[in-house]
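From the shared-data thread, chain only:
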Amino acid sequence: MATLQLYTKGASVWIPDPDAVWVSAQLLQDYTRDDKHVLLQLPGGEEECYPVAAPSDLPPLANPDISEGESDLTALSFLHEPAILHNLRVRFLDYNSIYTYCGIVLVAINPYDQLPIYGEEVIDAYSGQDMADMEPHIFSVAEDAYRTMMREEKNQSIIISGESGSGKTVSAKFTMRYFAVVGGAAQQTSVEDKVLASNPIMEAFGNAKTTRNDNSSRFGKYIQIGFSRKGAIIGANMSTYLLEKSRVVFQAPAERNYHIFYQLCASRQLPEMRSLKLATPEHFRYTNQGGDANIPCTDDVMEMERTCNAFSILGVLPEQQMELFRILAAVLHLGNVNIQASGRSSERSYIDADDVSLAIFSKLLGVEAAVTAHWLCHRRLILGGETLVKPISGQQAIEARDALAKHIYEQMFKWTVHRLNAALRSQLGRTRSFIGVLDIYGCVTELQEGCYLALLQLTSSSVCSFETFERNSFEQFCINYANEKLQQQFNRHVFHLEQEEYEREELTWSRIEFSDNQQCILLIEGQLGLLDLLDEECRMPKGSDDSWVQKLYDKHLTGRGHPHFRKPRMSNSAFIILHSADMVQYEGGGFLDKNRDTIFEELVNVLKASQSELVAELFQQQGNKPSVANGSVRSGRRAHREHKLTVGFQFRQSLQLLMDTLNSTTPHYVRCIKPNDLKRPFMFDPKRTVQQLRACGVLETIRISAAGFPSRWTYEEFFFRYRVLLHGCQGSGEVQLACRQALPQLIPDPDQYVFGRTKVFFRAGQVALLERLRAERLRMAAVVLQSWVRRWLARIHYTRTLWATITIQRYCRGALARRLALILRYTKAALVIQKTYRMLVARNVFHLVRQAAITIQAFIRGTLARRKYRLLVEERAASLLQARVRGWLARRAFTRFRAAVVFAQCCVRRRAAKRELLKLKTEARSVERYRELNKGMEVKLMQLQMKADQVARERAALKESLRVEREAAANELSALRATIQKLEEHQKRFTARPVSILSEEEQQERRRAEEKAARELLQLTQEVEALQREKASLSTERDRLSACLLQQEQAQEALVQQAVSRATAAVRVELDEERRKHQGLLREFTRLEQRYDNLREMSQLTQGYGRTDSTQSLEPLSPSPQSLSPFTSAFPSPEEVRRISVTSPSTETRVWSLETSMDQLMNMMDVTKKAAVELKEEDLAHAYDVVRVANKCLESQLQSQRSEWEQEVEMLKCQLRQASSGLSAHQQALLEAREQECVRLRRELKGLRSTVPIRRLLTQVFPSTFLTESSSSSSQQKAASTTGLLECKKRDENKLIKNLITDVRTDIAVSLPPGLPASVVFLCVRQADCRGDQTSAYSLCRAAVTAMKTALKKHTNDVAMTALWLKNICLLHDLLNQHAPKQVERTFNNEYKHVLCIYEGMKGLLLSFQTNDPEEVQPLNFDLRDSIRTLSDLRIQAYQQLISIPKTQLQNFLASALLEGEDVPGLKPVGSRKRAGSEPRTARTDAPTMASVLKELWVLHDAMSHQALHPALMEQAFHQLTYFISASALNSLLLRKDMCCCSRGILIRLNVSQLEEWLRCRDLQTEGAVASMEPLIQAVQLLQVGKKTEKDAEALLQTCTALNSDQIVRILSNYTPHSDLDEKVSLNFIRMVQGLLKGSAHAQPLQLLLDIKREFPVTFPDATPPVVRADMLVIPDSLKISFIRRV
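Structure, as tokens:
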């Protein structure tokens, strides 16, 4: 089937459009060869007749849907301009993908927006990956160049092209950054920092704002980044080409001069810049010609700071920087020098002597102002041996001034490049290979005498695009000449790659014709070409531009003429060159002057005599050179003038050297595209894009590829895609044979395809033909399936209808029969109902009468009963009230009486107790005992006895007065009783009179009183009922309010708990962040220390030093902090006491003396020493004072702790007030009550638990007091404490450390019991501490720490040894920390509130203190906090090293194992086709699988388990590793389009499930190990769920909670179906998801890729170390430490 037969009805084609360049249309009828037009339907629905004169005029066919958004343009079936443009538009606008492959070329479209695809996590994702496996990216090209250099040991170059503003400079930056990160991470050198630091300097001195780009490069540079054999950056070198000097003195509108001038002007207010006398850019002529000098979003002050920092990194001193800035400022002031014309015809010029700008210029450069002014307005001529000084005109003087400014800037620029090269030069040996980064030109715009000039930029070995302007001059000519050379190199390289591909596949191939621009290049550089004639004309004394153009006409137009040279019709001073990309017309005016680029020698001599060392150095170097770069110095000697190199000649030489360098390297191409001229983000202008594609060589690449066999499929890919077309092929065993047999039947023309060794090659359009055949075959199969399905559905429908009909008939017959039976049943039931109804009516009447009679009787009886009951109730109530009142009165009397009795008993008992206490005190203070202690106490006792006798006499007098008072009271009481008795007798006589007369009146009065009482009782009853009702309502209201209050309390408690939990979580997060920062700093310290060691070893190697001993001690990692004990100033530490006793044996000079220290203590603690002064010579006095001092110390500590605690409580209260600002007063009272209760409970918990620390305190203060009395107990204690230790002599310490830690063999070390080295070292340190040898304890501890650190560095790649030393470091840290003196002090501060100052039994109590608990932790006598802190940091380093080892192992194959490891049974995930330029890779037999990942994890788990590390530490380690695995896999998934499919998602989920099961079986799923894999799991779920409707989008958002919006959109955009049962995700669905993401939590601005270098802070569990004794250790003989002795 021919390609013309694809033009059938419904086919999509491309037709030209004036606005969109190409638009899609659809054929409305089939095309035949006789048709002169085809009927098309446009996207808007209009119909159009497209004329077709011949089959070659047919519109290009559109590619099938399978090629929509293809990452490689050469993989398209139809390779033509509209297909390329459409594919780039779809990827750029719909998928937000700015990179696309075009064979060996990477097409990069400038998004004009910041994209999160250039972070270090992206660099890590692309590092080590195959270019064909990853999505197109600039890092992929850089990685390919780097790996090719490492693999083939061949130099590389990256070629980036594009217009100004297309992103070339940014691409070059990211390329260099990638090399710096990949090539500099291993050696930790500063070369990569210097390479990156060169960018700000070169941008400041060589970049400027143009109309097309705010940061356009105005010079060419070629940077060679040198690499060592191991791939590390060891040096760099930079070469520059053709600086645009004209920009120094002239700028076009809306453009700027070089950035450095504006940075200096913006920094003019700095103190060091004030001497430069700078002003705003509008003040200087060289910076105000372009208009607005500001660039949006750019701060020139900050850029100046970046430039200075970059100079500092590269080693340029601040003094030299200021010299450089003086020269730049002088250039600005030179532009403001006012040159005035004089004379009749202005043939003379002069400068005022008081010109301020000239004076500043001369002062800054250190030259004479008068001499400079003279030679600016004059020139020297030598004629016939005579020297003449000739004045020049004002215009010539201005040109001389501008030429001087350009020359100064050029020399300064070269000096800067020279300093950069000196800083970047390799110091580590010879460079093995390099990668070249070439940046040649930016879009140079110059407006001079109406000439608008432009230069195009080549970046990172860049090939710039051809452009033409209204007026083109010498600059365009040089740039387009370079374009021709580089385009020729590009075309030949592409052809060479195609040839290599065919030879590799063993194909017979014929030469492919491509556009060779050799003739155009010969026109420019050949013999008697344009450059030769230009140099010849420059050597002529009276050469001019017109004569040179005329010579071009004569040479290249007469005779046969040159095919690439033409003469314009309307001009005799211009010429036209037919370049490979476009036809350009050049104006001959100015060619000779720009080619000469001259400057007067007199002005150069003035600068050579400058007082500034840098200025003199710049121009002295120029004078020593045989020729001046980029031009010549005009000396005025016409007779014997030496021939100077012209700009064109130098440019041709440098370009030839550049081409030789590029031809000796392997090139990699990047084409940058500028999508629009408005610099708007993600705006696509098809006209500008097509113009650039035509000029930059992309279409030429496509044409060369299309001339051969552009479509290339491996046999496996072709088989699985088109197996429906292969008849009789069921399996995949003989794939190649099946393809060879089936293709001749599918494509009859054998010239349209060819079979290679591993691939099938197709001509353009044949893949579309196969797609059409496949679609037809699938359509026919679908029709057959539909017919069978429809027959099956019809049969099912008929069967169901027949069954339904029979069922309906059966049910109808049954319904009629049931209806007849129902009628008969109803008739019989009616008769029964009538009979029963009549009977019920009569019965109801009888019952009604009977019930009425019973009701009347009941009411009467009830009334009588209630009346009787009411009387009984009233009597009962009265009796009950009387009983209750009497009982209450009796109980109150009894209670009062009992309280009085109890009080009396208490008083009696208290008096008895006081007497007993006084008796006991009297007995304890007997005269005999006090006589023994102190005879002076007798006087005091006598005084006390006299005082007691006086008190007794007073007591007897008080008793007598009390007796008299009692007798008076008894007499008064008897008189009152007599009076009461008389009154009672009088009352009896009055009541004995007769009452019969008043009985009736009393009865009536009683009756009235009873009636009144009844009425009052009724009223009271009603009031009681009302009160009860009110009480009930109040009770209900109370219950309701109580419930409401309880709910509010619960809600407020919940709010408080939430606030507390949030505050706790915030504190915990802050703590984790601080811990992470500390561990990050520690990791950075380790890196710097390793870097220091590397540099030290390197310096030792260079100086010839040998290797140092492994036991060499290092300085401690951290300084020793001050003691935190509150007794630091009062009580000396044991170390200080021991040091004083050793160094100061004299008792008079001791710092801690018994006489003065106690006085100082008592004065410091405000303790009165009244009693102590009297008994100063006795032990009891000292003990008493000691106890009082200790009590005061404890009180001061408790007060300080209480004040701190109160501050914390107040802080927490403030937080609670803020959290519960809406609480009611009652709720706040409840909270305060609870807080007070908590405070009370806390205080009660602080009781005395033991008395050991006070005994130690007292023994430290008064060692002699208790030494004599407790000699036996102390000797027993010492004997007990010194048992179970190990003793190592001083001379054997190095040997012990060497055999035990440093030089122990790996097999022996692994076989040791966990923690044995640490236990041995600790027991030796304890023994040295017990015998008081501080030096040995310190040296042994430090040596052990240093040896462990050395052992860690020695086994950086050994998991087992790293785990072993991590265990020993942790154990030694815990043991030393447990026995540190500060632990005892902390216990002392926390457990004791006060000490009872009891005189009795003080020495017995102190003797009891000497008895120690056998299980008590004995503290060390010496302070080893430095070693403990060093061990704390060292265990973090060991943990980080332990984690980094499996990370390094997993990084090489993790993505392949997790994403491609094992196939799911029944699924055959077929990856997307590799790009055409990728080399075939042989199938690996040892491909990594999930088992490889689990094996690495098992190695780590086995090592940590063998060393018995804490389970919490293991959980943290595997949490870190699972996050690393998940992040690496997710990053690869986001960057690989071939992995985003349903079948691959099932495979990844299976592998993740294996990892989860492995963690679950080992109880490692806690600490977030499984939760860290949630992003990867959700990404896999996203590949498997439905992606069509709005419900699917909402479910997708609910499922993918751990993914951000960029990740979700990227996965949906990369989703590529690998079977016909699946479909691509539509753009409408992606936009729907994006709309839902904007209002959800996923819209937070996060990065696309996860940071695989993220380190979770490790928290070491606070576990009590085991008891270590010498008799418990099993020390093998293989350690060879038998010289240590057990004690």
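The first strand starts at residue 12 and ends at 17.
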